[in-house]
Amino acid sequence: MRTLDDLDVDGRRVLIRVDFNVPLKDGAVADDTRIRAALPTLTELRERGAALILVSHLGRPKDREPELSLRPVAKRLSELLGTDVQLAPGVVGDAITQSAHALSPGEVLLLENVRYEPGETKNDATLASGLAALADVYVNDAFGAAHRAHASTEGVARRLPHAAGRLLEREVTTLNGILEDPAKPLVAVVGGAKVTDKVAVIDRFLEVADAVLIGGAMCFPFFKAQGHEVGDSLCEEEGIEPARRALEKAADAGCRLELPSDLVLGDRFGADAQRKELDGVDVPAGWMGLDVGATTAERYAREIAGAGTVFWNGPMGAFELEPFAAGTRAVAEAVAQAPGTTVVGGGDSAAALQQFGLADQVTHLSTGGGASLELLEGKRLPGVEALA
Predict the structure, then answer these.
(1) How many CA atoms lie within 13 A of 260 on its CB side?
(2) What is the reported pLDDT for 387?
(3) Catalytic residue at 370?
(4) Helix or strand or coil: residue 31?
(5) Is residue 48 annotated as part of the catalytic site, yes or no?
(6) Which is catalytic among the residues 76, 194, 249, 275?
(7) Collapsed DSSP state (helix, strand, coil) of residue 230
(8) Cβ neighbour number for residue 207 with a 10 Å cutoff
């Protein structure tokens, strides 16, 4: 994978695929984490004499909805960079090309939402060529979109000299390092709702990790596969057989697959639900498991504290509901305090770290949920492959 070290950018126009798919509220950026993550690449290229043309998507527009315009992003980026960021009225075309070619070194042009163009998600050759016509070189710094073969992530890279930005470079290097040369013990903490979403990652970690700790609603297919009662808990039926296979694989792999030993129950999903603690994992009818119990949280925290490398993806329960946030908080605090390398991937895990004020206390907070999982599964990411 080529990096910025391989590119001559002085006096050249650089098309940079960034991931500015950020939440908006009342016409303003509500969380600028992804914008800040791109700043090292943008700052370096400006200091090296490049003019920048930025391309990003925002949401999933169907018909150029005004509320999905990147105008609030341009405003916030202007504040963060300390320079005026122009917002183009579109993505490609003669007027956009003229604006791009008129840029001076250090100036920044942000194209409008690339998904306003229907050819983006189809990796349309005409759109990719139109994007390539804007610049002299291409940089992909949008790891969160690198698992998509889109015009702005894969197609345009085939048409210009190209490289990975510093964020994408760090993401790929860090995540590959977990699998190839981790400090031991390697502990993977996997939570969330669906086993089927993460079974391939669980399988991969069963091959390379020392322990895999399961939490969240995905523990219930494992319990059901073991013959336990799950009550009204969210239990993905399609996940039961993959869970059974994972249990069998763990028995032969020399990796400990750890499940909760106690739970926190609610009579329904809600912050005002009746709450009770269960010493065990057989959930009675009329109740649902909404968090791991205190004993499990302490056990998982000890595993994390003793790890050389920790990877965490997915909450331990309904952390957005305060009565059921303790398990996820305990894991987040343990990861933040762990002495080894700590890598966190996935939107919910990142949101939990933000909620508990711990986002700046991990080694690496991945900006790509789906992309990070696919890379760890061993899949080839089109946006990364195109940078070879």
Answers:
(1) 37
(2) 96
(3) yes
(4) coil
(5) no
(6) 194
(7) strand
(8) 12
Give, in degrees to the nearest 5, the angle at Cα 279 between 307 and 352: 45
**Residue 335 is which amino acid?**
V
Query: Active site includes 347?
Result: yes
Q: Distance between terminal CA atoms of the chain?
A: 4
Place of tokens 């043309």: 53
What pLDDT is stored for residue 109 in this prediction?
A: 98
- Show Cβ contacts of residue 179 under 8 Å, excluding neighbours closer than 6 positions: 204, 208, 376
Mean pLDDT of the chain: 95
25 catalytic residue (yes or no): no
pTM for the whole thing?
Answer: 0.89
Given the residues 13, 34, 299, 329, select the one marked as catalytic: 34
Q: How many other CB atoms are there within 10 angstroms of residue 296's CB atom?
A: 26
* Cα dihedral across residues 76, 79, 80, 85: positive or negative: positive
The list of the chain residues with pLDDT below 50 reads none
Q: How far apart are CA 238 and CA 338, in angstroms?
A: 34
Percent of the chain exceeding pLDDT 70 equals: 100
CA distance 221 to 236: 6
The confidence score (pLDDT) of residue 183 equals 95
Q: Which residue is it, tokens 């498991």?
A: 289
- Cα–Cα nearest to 257, from 305, 215, 320, 312: 215
